[in-house]
Design goal:
By secondary structure, the chain is α+β, with helices and mostly antiparallel strands. Helix content is 36%, strand content 27%. Helix 2 crosses helix 6. The two termini are 31 Å apart. The chain binds one RNA strand through helix 1, strand 11, strand 14, helix 10 and helix 11.
Length: 476
RNA sequence: CGGGGAAUGGCGCAGAUGGCAGCGCGCACGGUUUGGGACCGUGAGGUCCCGGGUUCAAGUCCCGGUUCCCCGACCA
């Protein structure tokens, strides 16, 4: 019997149980690191492939940069080194000898990319440079959790260089939208695009944007980031180009990243007491077929239909598994629900006789999600159903998110709202205010949503007049 | 890195006062079963987290360390 702690009882235990029982990942023998098992990695691969396609569609190409970065590179940008120093893994020895200059295991690649860009970019004709990298990075984290915060994590990091700040900023926002679309359309995850507060900015950026998503326990997960690096790294690494007017100018650079943390969001947003619920587009198995029979005669009949259904669904481009294991149907139902398979097809003697099958959808529990469907046009039906499940998951998540955010206009209201959700409140973007929020509420400024009504308010912390509101809540 | 909890078979756990390392699930084999986690029988599987110490004897007591979980500080 699988052991999944009820989500309402202990969210954290539930999360870890799901990861174990759904075969997503194991702990590694190294502190803070995980082994991603095939089922978990396959989900990540689908996420990666969808995202990669979107990068290509927006004109980006992939490349690879070294894992090792000379210590001096990290130190070239003042804020950057200050921000990352506490979490660097440093290689001091190689080949049995002490290194002359220590090498940092990349915590992110702005610096070593900057080095190359300085060589590659000579003229305005070389711009923009739009490159993405799929790699892993290492940050010496104090407190880790599978997928959400591991010492080594897989992600992509985009690095671009532009002639003007206007172009760079457009790129930063374009990629934020790419992430947003990926989350909604591929992962059925809602969220809020917004600008991070000055306090929460990436080390070395002049502006950071994020998508903040509400998890099932009402805490926020920063799902991705997109940074306007201004000319900070261009100056540090001499990334310059000769403009039309024959004068040398510094480039404007950007960087943006999304990690396997988003898989953690998929688990925490969609999962339920039965286990994982996967959005169809990233589900390794979209449809599982469970045959039901009492004897060899029935078995033969049922399998004939089941195999036929399997073939036709596969031909229709669906990822299908016919579960022919020697287990009871009930066991298989629970097993696949735990693994989050969006659609289950049950085929028994009655269905064979009726030339129909029972179709159960993972997003609706029990009988509510179960219906008899004719073999005629089954592929089309399932195809449409998967789309419906996607929208249903997105809607459930979005409704949950929206119903747990309160508009607040006073500190008292914020204080109360943050006990059990998020506050949307007028806030002055001042690190002192962020600090106050953290100390008083153990919550933080998530971001200043980009899509917000204009208005004039009074900051809930400082009391000064402000023109925008921030999302405030507890976060991962 | 501070405070709290934990570590015994793949998973979940039990092992007062030190005295043969156990249970449920899972796994293997055989049989009966199969429309919401079937059952019977047989069997395999253990450096009791690691290293020291006390003792005739340590899963159990003492010291040191590691890892995991929770709450903070720090972060994608």
């Amino acid at each position: 019997m699988a052991k999944i702690t009820p989500r309402s009882q202990d969210f954290s235990e539930w999360y870890l149980d799901v990861i174990r029982e759904a075969d997503l990942a194991d702990y590694a023998p190294v502190r803070g690191c995980i082994v991603v098992k095939p089922y978990g990695w396959t989900i990540y691969e689908y996420m990666r492939d969808y995202l990669d396609k979107r990068f290509k569609e927006t004109g980006h190409v992939n490349a690879a940069f070294p894992l090792f970065i000379p210590m001096s590179f990290i130190q070239k940008e003042a804020h950057h080194v200050q921000g990352f120093a506490p979490e660097l893994a440093v290689v001091t020895h190689g080949g049995g000898e002490q290194l002359e200059e220590p090498l940092v295991v990349r915590p992110t690649s702005e610096t070593i990319v900057g080095y190359s860009y300085a060589q590659w970019i000579k003229s305005y004709r070389d711009l923009p440079v739009l490159i993405n990298c799929w790699n892993s990075v290492v940050r010496w984290e104090k407190r880790t959790k599978p997928f959400l915060r591991t010492m080594e994590f897989y992600w992509q990091e985009g690095h671009t260089a532009h002639a003007t700040h206007e172009d760079a900023l457009a790129e930063v926002l374009r990629m934020l939208d790419v992430y947003y679309a990926h989350m909604r359309e591929d992962c059925a995850l809602p969220g809020f695009r917004g600008r991070k507060s000055i306090h929460e900015r990436f080390a070395g950026a002049i502006n950071t944007f994020s998508v903040e998503t509400m998890m099932g326990d009402k805490r926020s997960l920063q799902s991705c980031t997109s940074h306007d690096l201004g000319q900070n790294f261009a100056r540090a690494f001499e990334i310059k180009y000769l403009d039309r007017d024959n004068t040398e100018k510094y480039c404007w650079t950007t960087s943006w990243g999304l990690s396997w943390r988003l898989l953690g969001a998929v688990i925490m947003v969609h999962g339920d007491d039965q286990g994982l619920r996967l959005p169809p587009k990233i589900a390794p198995i979209q449809v599982v077929i469970v045959p039901i029979f009492k004897n060899d005669t029935e078995r033969a009949q049922v399998f004939e239909t089941a195999e036929q259904v399997s073939r036709s669904l596969k031909a229709a481009g669906l990822r299908v598994k016919l579960d022919d294991r020697d287990e009871t149907p009930g066991y298989k139902f629970n097993d696949w629900e735990m693994r989050g398979v969006p659609v289950r097809i049950e085929i028994g003697p009655k269905d064979v006789a009726n030339r129909s099958v029972m179709v159960a959808r993972r997003d609706l529990p029990g009988k509510a999600g179960k219906a008899s469907v004719s073999l005629e046009g089954l592929s089309e039906h399932i195809h449409a159903l998967l789309g419906e499940i996607h929208h249903s998951l997105l809607k459930q998540a979005e409704d949950f998110q929206n119903s747990n955010i309160r508009e607040c206009f006073s500190w008292e209201e914020v204080k109360e709202a943050v006990q059990d959700g998020w506050a949307l409140a007028p806030l002055e973007d001042n690190p002192a205010n962020d600090e106050f929020i953290r100390e008083q509420l153990t919550a933080k400024t998530l971001n200043f949503p980009l899509d917000q009504a204009e208005g004039e308010w009074t900051c809930v912390v400082s009391g000064r007049p402000v023109r925008e509101r921030a999302l405030i809540g507890k976060s991962y």
